[in-house]
Write a structure and sequence with these properties.
By secondary structure, the chain is of the alpha/beta class. The chain has helices spanning 13-25, 28-35, 39-53, 69-92, 109-116, 121-126, 178-184, 190-193, 210-218, 229-238, 281-302; strands spanning 58-61, 64-67, 101-107, 130-136, 150-153, 162-177, 198-201, 222-226, 243-246, 256-258, 266-274. Strands 3, 4, 5, 6, 9, 10 and 11 form a 7-stranded mixed beta sheet that branches. A two-stranded antiparallel ribbon has the order 1-2. The protein has a two-stranded parallel ribbon with strand order 7-8.
């Protein structure tokens, strides 16, 4: 027996999606910026949803807006709808096995620029229909919401829906530019670094790099600080001071000199995917390719 469709049933997921954006941003204007649409679109969609449901969803006040009781009631259901939609996308995206389309890779800026990108040539030759997009930054991309399809992370995820494979260890060495050492001499111990200029990466103050972080915090001649790996390595190359970098970076430029000072700073490297994207042939091919790259370079850089 065919099930009758309620003529008043909610049929437009887009209205709910805009409601979620507004509820999270607590502002039509901010929701529009986050979703890449005009504020008027958000407002029109919310008006349409309120008219359909026969309920007011937001109260405006001088600091923005807040959900009404009806809005709170809808929010939980809307989040379930969003998760169901994302689950369909994760499960069925690329299930036909075609080797064409877009793959987003979340990766640190330094690893993308100084190691990954140059190693994509062979993959591109084998799979010319696949576009690789690197999503670089300090924030951890959300694989559940398809901010990225695969991630190279420097910590193991704790989300049980994520599948993580340890592929190596990123080790750090103390470096300086040759022209800096010609001017100021070469320190031989960590204690001697306190007589030199240093540069600081704000991302290098976390577990795994504590030995260097403590040195920086105690140093009174930090000459440069940045949150960008590219800018940090350029500062090293220019001779602004002494810093640290992953072992694979100095091979790119003869002006980088690895100092003979022991340093125990490292990160574990994890290759992470979502459990619901296993059937994606493009993703599986790229995952296997990345594993082979890490295996190849483990003796040199990631052991």
């Amino acid at each position: 027996m065919r099930k009758r469709i309620n003529r008043n049933a909610l049929r437009d997921w887009e209205d709910v999606r805009y409601f979620l954006g507004a509820a999270r941003a607590k502002s039509f204007n901010q929701a529009g910026k986050a979703m890449g649409v005009p504020q008027s679109t958000i407002s029109r969609r919310i008006d349409h949803l309120e008219a359909h449901l026969g309920a007011k969803l937001f109260d405006r006040h001088n600091k923005g807006m807040r959900l009404t009781p009806a809005g709170h009631g809808l929010l939980e259901q809307a989040e379930r709808m969003e998760e169901a939609a994302l689950s369909i996308d994760r499960r069925l995206g690329g299930i036909d096995g075609t080797m064409r389309g877009l793959l987003r890779v979340a990766v640190t800026e330094g690893l993308a620029a100084w190691w990954l990108t140059e190693n994509l040539v062979e993959f591109q030759r084998h799979f010319p229909g696949i576009t690789i997009e690197t999503v670089c930054g300090n924030e951890i991309a959300n694989l559940a919401t398809r901010e990225a399809d695969i991630a190279i992370r420097l910590s193991r995820p704790d989300d049980p829906r994520l599948v993580a494979l340890r592929v190596g260890t990123m080790r750090f060495v103390i470096c300086a530019a040759r022209n800096y050492l010609d001017l100021y001499g070469t320190p031989r111990t960590q204690r001697e670094i306190f007589r030199h200029r240093v540069i600081d990466h704000s991302g290098y103050h976390r577990a795994g790099l504590r030995e260097w972080s403590q040195l920086i915090e105690a140093h009174d001649a930090v000459m440069y600080r940045t949150n960008s790996s590219i800018a940090y390595f350029e500062a090293l190359r220019a001779g602004l001071g002494i810093g640290i970098c992953p072992t694979y970076v100095p091979r790119h430029d003869a002006n980088f000199v690895v100092l003979p000072i022991p340093l125990d700073c490292r990160y574990e490297i994890w290759l992470v995917t979502h459990e619901e994207t296993k059937s994606n042939a493009r993703l599986k091919a790229f995952h296997d390719y990345l594993v082979s790259l890490f295996e190849r370079d483990r003796p040199k850089w990631f052991g």
